[in-house]
């Protein structure tokens, strides 16, 4: 897939603020600092479409981007920031549930985890929400450049086990630094959006 056009549309909290669901949509999810903004910018080949290194946990909004006037890319709010109060956490959970339940044009979610770390309770909660809502998931292990190629399977197996996935090889190792996995991810996204 070629990104000819990528433009910010709207930040939404409530369903009334979502853009009309007339095009297929793919969302990206992960903890704060997992490398979500860097991955989005790398994918669409823009320096700052999504803001890198923003204050973690601050922006609790669903950001919609128009891609090629053909589909929507959605940047879901990062979670798991330690200092976030319980009430904000609850709001985040409700906002995600509502989005997953109502968004009929949502074709799939790219779930990001840092290749070096075991998924957290919130990562597993997110995977559970996707499962109960029957939303296809593509797991991507970010910051792959931090782990030598030969060592990666060991880390991917830990992630797969934590998510109860049957095949760790379906996890795409990715790096925004050296473009590891970029083509593979691009192809996998294409397959989800235009089956
Ligand atoms: P977000 O909070 O999930 O949007 O994460 P960011 O994209 O802002 O990245 C968080 C931090 O991780 C920044 O300091 C990035 O430079 C760094 N980072 C992001 N992606 C990679 C990567 O692929 N490799 C390495 N080594 N660092 C990365």
TrEMBL record:
Keywords associated with the record: Cell cycle, Cell division, GTP-binding, Magnesium, Metal-binding, Nucleotide-binding, Septation
Domain called EngB-type G: residue spans: 22-195
Signal peptide limits: none
Alphabetical list of InterPro entries matching this protein: G_ENGB_dom, GTP-bd, GTP-bd_ribosome_bio_YsxC, P-loop_NTPase, Small_GTP-bd
Cofactors required: Mg(2+)
UniProt key word Metal-binding: yes
Pfam families, per the entry: MMR_HSR1
Homology family: Belongs to the TRAFAC class TrmE-Era-EngA-EngB-Septin-like GTPase superfamily. EngB GTPase family.
Function comment: Necessary for normal cell division and for the maintenance of normal septation.
NCBIfam families documented for this protein: GTPase_YsxC (TIGR03598), small_GTP (TIGR00231)
Protein name: Probable GTP-binding protein EngB
Lineage of source species: Bacteria, Bacillati, Bacillota, Clostridia, Eubacteriales
Encoding gene (name): engB
